[in-house]
Here is the input.
Amino acid sequence: MITFPILSLMTFLPLLGALLIFCLRGDEKSVAGNARIIALLTSLVTFGVSIFMYAGFDPHAAGFQFVEKYRWLTGFDIHYKMGVDGISVFFILLSTLLTPICVLASWKSIQSRVREYMMAFMLLETTMLGMFAALDLVLFYVFFEAVLIPMYCIIGVWGGKNRVYAAFKFFLYTLLGSVLLLIAILAIYHQTGTTDIPTLMASSIPSGMQKWLFLAFLASFAVKVPMWPVHTWLPDAHVEAPTAGSVILAGVLLKMGGYGFLRLSLPILPEASHYFMPLIFGLSVIAVIYTSLVALVQEDMKKLIAYSSIAHMGFVTIGIFAMTTQAVQGAMFVMLSHGIVSAALFLCVGVVYDRLHTREIARYGGLVNNMPVYAAIFMIFMLASVGLPATSGFVGEFLVLVGTFKVSTLTTFLAATGVVLGAAYMLYLYKRVVFGEIVHDDVRKMTDVSAREIAVFAPLVVLVFWMGIYPSSFTAPMAPAIEKVITRYDSANHIVPHAPKGVAAPEVH
Amino acid sequence: MQLETVAVFAPLLGAAIAGLFGKKIGDKGANFATCTLMLVSAGCAVALFRDVLFLHHPHTATLLTWISSGALKVDWALRFDQLATVMVTVVTVVSCCVHFYSIGYMAHDKARARFTAYLSLFTFAMLMLVTADNLVQLFFGWEGVGLMSYLLIGFWNGKESANNAAIKAFVMNRIGDFGLALGLMATFFLFKSLNFDYIFAHAAEMKDATIMFLGHGYGALNLICALLFVGAMGKSAQLGLHTWLPDAMEGPTPVSALIHAATMVTAGVFMVARMSPVYEYAVQVRMFITVMGGLTAFVAATIAITQFDIKRVIAYSTMSQLGYMFFALGVSAYSAAIFHLFTHAFFKALLFLGSGSVIHAMGGEQDMRKMGGLYKKIPQTYVLMWIGSLALAGIPLFAGYYSKDLILEADFAKVGDAARFAYWLGVAAAFMTAFYSWRMIFMTFHGKPRADKHTMDHVHESPPVMLVPLYVLGAGAMFGGWAFHRFFVGDARQAFWGKSLFVLKGDHTVAMAENIPAWAAHAPVAVGVIGILVAFWLYMKATKLPAKIAKAFKPLHSLLFNKWYFDEIYHALGVVPAFIIGRALWKTGDGKIIDGLGPDGVAKAVAGGARKASKIETGYIYHYAFAMLAGVVAFITAYIFCVQN
Here is the structure.
């Protein structure tokens, strides 16, 4: 199989950019300027490559495409293997889209060690892309863990006052999961003799062992999602991270957990996934209600959005483990939508933070008077987060709930309360920041969004409406890959479609 | 084909022009764009009204696939059947009046372009709601009008009370939408489709189906209808989920007329009528609706008789009238409910805009205790308010008479306790309706002026741009019932409605309404006249008596004046606990328990009593090492365990 290694090209382009930035010489100012430009160009080219790749992507195929396979650890049947399907391709696009936006968002707000900062972001992009494209467990693990290093640096070096505490907490949590993930991978290799993901997706592991493996995977992925109760690192990490760090953390890194579940846990461990479904539902429902209530009382904008992220991710885990077509597509859609919307919300916080250098909600108020364009942009993303129809936020949560109804009405019922609470905390936030009369003098001096900032938001606004009004562009290509996972799950667990009592199963319309 | 698209999308275009380019084209340009396009939309709607309802050409235009996920497939579509077309006509005509009226009413506002853009966008959302051919698009419109309502209630966003009212409206509606959304899910679970045509065609087959919901088995159609009705209760301010509506009066008066009287709040009524092929099989739920409607009509009227804010009186009156519509739906008199929706839209919008004219004249004053004696200064408004009130009170020949009387007669004709209960509450409410309407008229327009001289000198009749829309609505309030009752509820009703409203065979409440005893048929009008006379006596003759009565029946008056304490109860049971629990989960749950036992606990243990987070900085390598160690131990344990297995 000789195809052009577009995935590798895409994955390592940012690394090349990082090397270029590393080689920059000159005085600090020119290095900073050039580093920004190289980072922006590299990330844009990478985005272009990913679009080019997507143009050649066959939306009707369930299997992996653009597969590359090279021998890596000879003697162990461990390969360097890359490929994408309808599930991973969208995460790749999300990553390549958000990276240039992050670079642009940091243009002015990062003034110290710009070269290192941009290098960290380029490295981060390489590791993210590698993680989403990897088709070998070991390769996946390497990238999965490597993502943490640049992120850890971004929080720890360019973060706020308590950055070290936050970075430490972030690392401690994720590390524990990583160790267990590694054990699980070794055990799988020990059991099946392969680490090839497509092969594993078709092989069967004894159900007793599946349960242990599942718990090990869960320890790792649950932290990333994050699921309750291993979520407390996220608010701290967000609060301390620079704006772009939060954007990428919320936009892409939180999806690693959901992606891990969908890529590894469910296809490789279908029986255990079914067995532990109630546990996941329970934790997710707690997450939705608990963190929504906590979000209601936050006084720090970033913390509020961080807690709301956890609530949204609760929908993701519910949808993934409900394992019906609508629920899984919905979970994917929530992840993509949240990638756009939460990223944009953190950018919104960044805009005012750059002007006033505080995230305290009470320090603002009345922004609509002097920043009307900002108010409108913030409103769009606030509403998308609330899940208003015709924005991206609605489609995903709606599909998750529709798809979960037939698995567990209780879960659906409880999760749906999050929709009410979500409206409460977001509108309450918006009111305190944007509406009202201006009471602080320094707020009155704040200027509306600049052209650069509008350029940052523009693609996200377009996507929010595109995903909301014509979601089929996104759900159709992911459908075959998802169907494949569901079919395997259903046959492993002997699930047959059931209808309500009293009627024959009606025909599909 | 084209007419529908223009009717629905012209307001969207107007909103886009005014909203995006309002700064460039100025307020006048924005007003011009939105009003012209609204006029176009209303023109198309009237043409469609003729085509669909009199030439009997119902049809659906599909625009675009919206959501397609497995078996779930829904489109963006414009369904113009009889029911939808009636709604489209009401919405566009009233909206057109309100758009023009707003030019005058909002003339001194700073953000006129934004206001008119919101009005147009609201109209678009409402049109999408009523022309939906599936439940999801209906939900889109439903949430869309909720959003616009939120934005318009909070239009004067410098006011804290307006912002709070806006949030309250949105969140209360979300509670209703929570039910509606669950109803959608149950519908999809049962029918495997959310398209109206499919659901209606298969509803009869499902009448014995059961669904397990939260551990109990329920009759599937009853469950679906009950859940959907929760949504209707929120949107249409039925008792229990109504407290947002009076507060919504914080918005500018044209908003109250358009959204909180004529159109959005009737969405719940529309939805139940739309789903009539399903509701017909949900007998228990319809009984519940009948009782809820009756209670709402009654309770809202009792509150209205004690209020002093002119807009709140009309707001409670709206809530009361919505109650009438619901108990009509409950007894399968769908056509009567929609007819009342139709006439109510005109006379209630008239009353609101008329009260807006009063408020405009009084320089923003809304308290009736500070009005009085205005009839000479604003005679046209005065006459129009009389027309609106006569229609509201159901005085013969005015619009409300035809629809409200029929509803009460249909409830009397229907066999059953629920219907009879609603009838008596409805008659009682009819008495109170007449009473509070004339109380309002007498307090506002008659007697001695209670405002200061400066305000009274300022009082002036509204400009033509405000009066002409009032005359249009006045014409509707006078002739709407007389002209249309034959089609909506009379002999021609079968042909008029076609298949858009469904009633089970053998259930002819609307037809039977003609054959009830004379006393029952005349009672509503009789109590209405008595109500007017009582109001005349209390507020024109014995003007000191109302205060005495209020004093004599202090507990009762306090209960009514304080709106049965719903707000206070909800605040104490809902809002306050949410914040207390939120804080407890945050500080104790996340802080003390999870962090305390998790990362911070580990840090403490390892750093040997390091109390401050700053100290972690010096010791974090050790923590890292400890975690590694713990990991390795876990690793070995698990590995051994797995291998042994």
